[in-house]
Design goal:
By secondary structure, the protein is an alpha+beta fold. It has one domain: 2-Layer Sandwich (BirA Bifunctional Protein, domain 2), CATH 3.30.930.10. About 25% of the residues lie in helices and about 30% in strands. It is built from 4 helices and 10 strands; from the N terminus they run E-H-E-E-E-E-E-H-E-E-E-E-H-H. It has a 7-stranded mixed β-sheet. It has a 3-stranded mixed β-sheet with strand order 4-3-5, with no helix packed on it. Helix 2 packs antiparallel against helix 4. The radius of gyration is 16 Å and the shape is globular.
């Protein structure tokens, strides 16, 4: 069986409560490290909420909507999650994939950029700015967030891509600490924002993502 076939691919319908999801993800990461569970790519949506990364600045949280706020334990600052946003939690064992966290993040960004490209969205990395960027109706804008954590060489957390969320909800924070640029979505750009289309685009590039991860550690 190839590496991709050994990794569980899970799609959870509906809205997944954040606290329970975080607890399950952390438990799964521990089980992967212990050799008791397979690696996992987990695609889902959350109800409206904000998460605080380890670098979150309270001055960047306004939250007029009164959404719940969770300490996520991942890197980064404040991020919004909500309906219409595809969240991908990526739990992989870097002990057998090069032990290079920077390279993992680079490959994760590339995987998401490739998936968006399959849907006709030209996305890119921006020097000095975290996340996934594109040129939207209001100029250069952020279309996806990246936030990861690594514990005992097992990755968790991952990415969030804006398919068709309520963009006004992002006004409750300074998204990822970047106030100079807006947030956009596939829906705002007039691109198909159906979950299954994005999921298929991710799946189509998954083997390439793994090959890049396993073939280039230390070179990013």
């Amino acid at each position: 069986m190839d590496a991709a076939g050994e990794i569980e691919w899970r799609v959870t319908p509906g809205l997944s409560p954040y606290a329970e999801t975080l607890a399950e993800m952390e438990a799964r990461a521990g089980a992967i490290r212990a050799g008791d569970a397979r690696e996992l790519v987990w695609l889902l949506e959350h109800p409206p909420l904000f998460t605080a990364g380890t670098s979150a600045d309270p001055a960047e949280l306004f939250n007029p909507q009164g959404f719940p706020v969770f300490a996520a334990g991942r890197g980064g600052r404040y991020t919004y999650h909500g309906p219409g946003q595809r969240v991908g939690y990526v739990l992989l064992d870097l002990e057998k994939r090069g032990k290079d966290v920077r390279h993992f993040v680079h490959c994760l960004e590339g995987w998401v950029i490739d998936a968006l490209g399959r849907l006709g969205v030209s996305a890119f990395r921006a020097e000095g700015r975290i996340g996934i960027w594109t040129h939207g109706p209001r100029g250069e804008a952020k279309v996806g967030a990246i936030g990861v954590r690594v514990r005992r060489w097992v990755t968790f957390h991952g990415f969030a891509v804006n398919l068709a969320p309520e963009l006004s909800h992002f006004s409750g924070i300074v998204p990822c600490g970047i106030a100079e640029f807006p947030v956009t979505s596939l829906d705002e750009m007039g691109v198909s924002s159906r979950q299954q289309h994005f999921d298929l685009a991710l799946a189509a590039g998954f083997c390439d993502f793994l090959a890049a991860l396993e073939g280039g550690a230390g070179k990013a």
